[in-house]
Amino acid sequence: MRYSLKYVLLLTFATPLLTGCDDEGITEADLDVPSGYALSAGTSTIYSTSSFAYDTEADWVVDDLKKRFMRGDKLYDDARTSSNGYGGGLGPVYAGYSCGSCHRNAGRTKPALWEDAEGSGSYGFSAMLVYVTRKNGVFFQDYGRVIHDQAIYGVQAEGKIHVTKHYQTFAFPDGETYELCYPEYSISEWYADSIRPEDLFCSVRIPLRHVGMGQLMAVDPNEVEALARKSNYPEWGISGRCNYITERGRRQLGLSGNKAQHADLTVELGFSSDMGVTNSRYPEEICEGQAQMEQGSMMGLLYDQLDISTEDMEDVDLYLQTLGVPARRNVNNKLVRRGQQLFAQAGCALCHATTLHTRPRGTTLLNGTQLPWLGSQTIHPYSDFLLHDMGSEIMGVGLNDNYVSGLARGNEWRTTPLWGIGLQEKVNGHTYFLHDGRARNFTEAIMWHGGEGEASKNKFKNMSSDDRQALLRFLESL
């Protein structure tokens, strides 16, 4: 059932608490109440709390847009094959066999980190990206920037991922305990010469939630840059900055990715790097020049044609940008309201900025289609999309992954948008957070904050148990 948005009030930071939700979440009766929901993404807000809460189109996606949305959804979810022709092109090496294989229901497929120690999960692959460089930052000639731990029949994968988990128990001042896990990765079965561990930096990423992708692409860059100029809070140790990268021949503000290392949604890069599917932007195989090319040729694969058209990739881009963003839930619950106050008092909102706005003209997709419906919206991503130093040592390591992306150093990460985060368990069946999934719940994610997040973490640490639970309930409402 569709509900008109004309009766729904926008949430702003000044008026964060609206009526209409009870402790059990959004019901059909609630939706008939003319006043009051927290519109996460303006007219792209949806009211789903099901396992498809990340995978439902906005209400304005109708007619031809709806047809293209469905085509993009199918291309996103359908498994690629190694055969030549439509729907083929997988490999010779790859990390996932479809977009949806790693982004289940447009969310985060459960990573193999918590499945087993051999680098493959219940889906038969890791659902992780593994970036590798030499200690001096240079890529390995035989491997490139990503280790592809899967390969088509008859071709050898580049390596196999293994993880060793280290645990340590800590205590809050009130005596309540919590445990942190640090995952240590190693790679074996290198397809070429083995790389010595002492010469290797390895950074693992689990998939990001594809929530609010259209709004991310439409966000006013001047507003983000203004936040960077204002984001200097010495009393909190916070000073965010923009990442700038060069893509498509021009220098641009980075917005997407763990380190804001991309200016777009990387649809073409995802097909190429993650699945080995060649396209107009990346026409060469990802293993060009490696032994896998010869192995693939022996299997009868053709490398003189593109595996996916630009038109098809734009439909995937359209699918991502027209997905709705779940409305907040339980916004009038007393515990949630208390948690929201504590979130602000702890300084969390200094980086997880509550309110931003989109450009008047919306976005332009990778092949020129315009989406003006995304323009002139007030949005609530709970992110400033800036880089922050998060790398203070915890368990002797911290969150510094030693991987440079654009201007982002190893200890710097883009503020993760929190919209939709409270539904991740419903959508994907797990609550693993941070870039590599090491945090198993909200508490662990907070307690891994270091660097510029240290002061806010300590505020949370020194709260009473009841106040900590209230703040966690607030996060669950997002």
Topology record:
Elements: H1 28-31, E1 45-46, H2 63-77, E2 93-94, H3 99-102, E3 129-134, E4 150-151, E5 160-171, E6 177-188, E7 200-205, H4 213-218, H5 221-230, E8 232-233, E9 238-239, E10 244-247, E11 250-253, H6 267-275, H7 291-298, H8 310-322, E12 325-326, H9 334-345, E13 356-357, E14 363-364, E15 370-371, E16 378-379, E17 387-389, E18 412-414, H10 424-428, H11 442-447, H12 454-461, H13 465-476
Parallel strand pairs: 1-12
Antiparallel strand pairs: 2-4, 3-7, 5-6, 8-9, 10-11, 13-16, 14-15, 17-18
Helix pairs in contact: 2-8, 9-13
Q: How would you describe this structure in keywords?
A:
two-stranded parallel sheet, 478 residues, 13 helices, alpha+beta, globular, two-stranded antiparallel ribbon
Helix and strand composition category: alpha+beta
How many helices does DSSP assign?
13
Report on the biggest sheet.
Answer: 2 strands, parallel
Radius of gyration computed on alpha carbons: 22 Å
The fraction of residues in strands falls at 5-15%
Distance between the amino and carboxyl termini:
22 Å
Report strand order across the widest sheet. Answer: 1-12
- Please provide the count of β strands: 18
Name the overall outline.
globular
Low-pLDDT stretches are 1-37
Helix content: 10-25%
